[in-house]
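Pipeline run #58 for the internal structure catalog. This entry was flagged by the ingest filter as a single-chain record with no existing model, so it goes straight to prediction. Upstream metadata was stripped on purpose; only the residue string is passed forward. Reviewer on rotation: M.T. Logging verbosity set to normal.
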Amino acid sequence: MPLSRRQQAVLPFLLRGDSLPTVAENAGVSLRTLKTYLSDPEFGEALNALIRSRIETALHDGAGSLAELSGESIDAMAAVLKDQNVPATEKAKIAFQIWDRFANVAELLRVVGDAKN
């Protein structure tokens, strides 16, 4: 069964990450009604589909510029790592930052993969 207009009106407010009372107030529903919506499997499926769609759009739209900026960032960090005038402690910090970025990308790819399944 398709979502009602009131249920559809709630979705954008949930995506903003507001608290449930704020979502209910902004969407014009009671907190109790909002909690009822959230317990409805069909509403949950619609919310998850919208989240997946937003993630895929963001990844698709930003992939080129993100890849370009990431490449530039990594090149800059690599140059610092090779610079003999940079203290070892700073090089270690940069190495950890690079490792952390790779871990974040790996986690994002896992989340997107899970969302597609």
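catalog note: Residues 63-117 form one domain.
catalog note: Residues 104 and 110 are 10 Å apart (CA to CA).
status: ready for reviewer M.T.
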